């Protein structure tokens, strides 16, 4: 089953980019943003970085959902990327354009391939591959670019995945072109060889036998086509989304009776914690059939003995921590506020480990029936960072996602570290996460945005995380034909 919205692919190329780097060309990357209204923009996608290039043709397609009934304002920005940080604040802006999605109708111009001299007469080549799809006008559009293999005349490139839509518009008889080039740092790559084929020919290959050669006796291609399931395929096919809430009750939030406290409930009946629970819960509850959400608090002195707990039920029923719907979570939170004393420290690992135990039990089943989403709302001052790192690495191998919403104006560097945007998160022993499962969002970024914006941002990664887990396990949706074999 396909997604219920139309996905539009934007292919981006540039010419005559300015050089911001001293002594070399820029390393451009394109970033796609969509308007949220009121001069608010949110990032939707970004391409790969192309090194030392003033005329980049980006291989990665920018994806955006298309809604005919909306005016969707887009902003495409080109940045010179000189570091590994995902933040654009320290990167040079090379230029950009604003438009609406409805206005985007710019077919690429056809280009002739210019013959080039044989590569590297005095040494070995640095080969890489480019794969092109054919447009309706007969022009070739870049669909994939491989890694460069340095100093090698017998390269073996890493296996890769590319969607049929990107490669041939879903038509296996539509021509594709493969070129092999010798990489040059100044961007003037030498052509080694090229051929044209289509996926129907590639599909005829059995047992991993070679299908094409670029130049005599050089085998380059093996093919396997797999079914790609979407998030909706899983949830409509019977996968249950289990939503759990964890709320920070540490003393750094301030006395709930004080208007300066992050737990203070304003005259309109809301605070940042309540807003986050409402925004995310209202979306997630539609994917939970029983609408029963376990909700926990951490970092408070709890009745009846007044001892600190990092995993107490908001409804004070440890054997049945489930709340009926989002409203049930709200009611339990309000009741807990007047019955606990804010204390500390701020430990995430107990709640992550709690949900992980349920996810681990689900992972023992050979079906894609249970996926867990943990929402943690906190003021940001985490104290068990090392234990939390270990808990996240362990959870990355389970059917589980973690959403962290930071309230207030504290330093959220630890949260950004857990998000993994600055690099792959690792445990204390150096074990990396199996997949990215953490999404962090500061609440203040959305205070003046439409109420739907927070939920859209914090939940944006969950569908990809769910699909990536079941793809890793090679598990189809529960009610798909494959699962019934």
TrEMBL record:
Example of a GO biological process term: regulation of canonical NF-kappaB signal transduction
Residues annotated as signal peptide: none
The C2 domain, residue ranges: 80-212
Keyword Membrane: yes
GO molecular function: calcium-dependent phospholipid binding; metal ion binding
A GO cellular component entry from the record: focal adhesion
Pfam family, one: C2
Top-level taxonomic group: Eukaryota
Family matches, as InterPro entries: C2_dom (IPR000008), C2_domain_sf (IPR035892), C2B_Copine (IPR037768), Copine (IPR045052), Copine_C (IPR010734), VWF_A (IPR002035), vWFA_dom_sf (IPR036465)
Record localization: Cell junction, Focal adhesion; Cell membrane; Cytoplasm; Nucleus
CDD domains: C2A_Copine, C2B_Copine, vWA_copine_like
This protein's UniProt keywords: Calcium, Cell junction, Cell membrane, Cytoplasm, Membrane, Metal-binding, Nucleus, Phosphoprotein, Repeat
SUPFAM superfamilies: C2 domain (Calcium/lipid-binding domain, CaLB), vWA-like
Quaternary assembly: Monomer. Interacts with ERBB2 (preferentially with the tyrosine phosphorylated form); this interaction occurs at the cell membrane and is increased in a growth factor heregulin-dependent manner. Interacts with SHC1; this interaction may mediate the binding of CPNE3 with ERBB2. Interacts with RACK1.
Entry's family note: Belongs to the copine family.
Task of the protein: Calcium-dependent phospholipid-binding protein that plays a role in ERBB2-mediated tumor cell migration in response to growth factor heregulin stimulation.
The protein's name in its UniProt record: Copine-3
Originating organism: Callorhinchus milii (Ghost shark)
